[in-house]
Specification:
With 250 residues, this protein is an all-alpha fold. The protein has helices spanning 2-14, 17-90, 102-109, 121-128, 138-176, 188-196, 202-207, 209-248. It has one domain. It is built from 8 helices and no strands. Helix 2 (17-90) packs across helix 4, helix 2 packs antiparallel against helix 8 (209-248) and helix 4 (121-128) packs across helix 5 (138-176). It is rod-shaped.
Length: 250
Amino acid sequence: MKVFRKLRRKLLFSGKIKNYLVYAFGEILLIVIGILIAWKINSLNEIRKNRIVELKIYKSLSQELDTNLLVLDSAIVSYSNSIERIENTLNYLGKQPNELTVEAKDLIVNLNYRKVIMRNEAINSINITNKFEFIESDSLKELIAIYPNELDKFNEQEKKIADIVGYRLKPVIEKYISLIDLLPENTFNYKRIKRSSKESNYSDLLDSKEYQNSIIDRLLQTKIQLAIAEGLKYNTQSIAEKLDHELKGS
């Protein structure tokens, strides 16, 4: 810088204004070029940092989606089996107790429900924080933005089924059926308790409008949930595939 100042002074005192102006312009140009280079380097560093954050987001979300796909695969099988069991149960409506086998009775009182839980920590974190800004792909942003609503729809339908089982089917079954019937028959205590217990009334249970409506409602809601689960699986796979593409492109 001292050299530049000496050269500038020399040109100024020499009276060669034209040469001084050319030099001054060149010096300004060098400063501008230096600023642009520094800005470019800083910009590249920001891009690199953003890309690191973006890839971390992708990896976290990818793991969550992989888990959800496994859960959905299992849930779809479970819903399909449940639909088949309920449809078979409907065949026993109106039957007399002497027409019911042990297997039929087990089917009639079988609640067999386990709540399906989907993960949403990573997807919610993206949507409610500034992480969304780090995602470059517009199509991926769109899928991620609507995914929480699809999870909510799935969870709401799951709650409907849980409520039918817990608050409608279970009470009506317990009203007519002695739960002692569900104990294993090859134990001494079972035989002793059964002799002193109130007998189950399968006939009244099957004729009960509460039971019939609850069973049919569970069937309808499970069919709806199966369709929702299949749609959610498709959309989950779509996001997972785009994420995989982004990660491989890194």
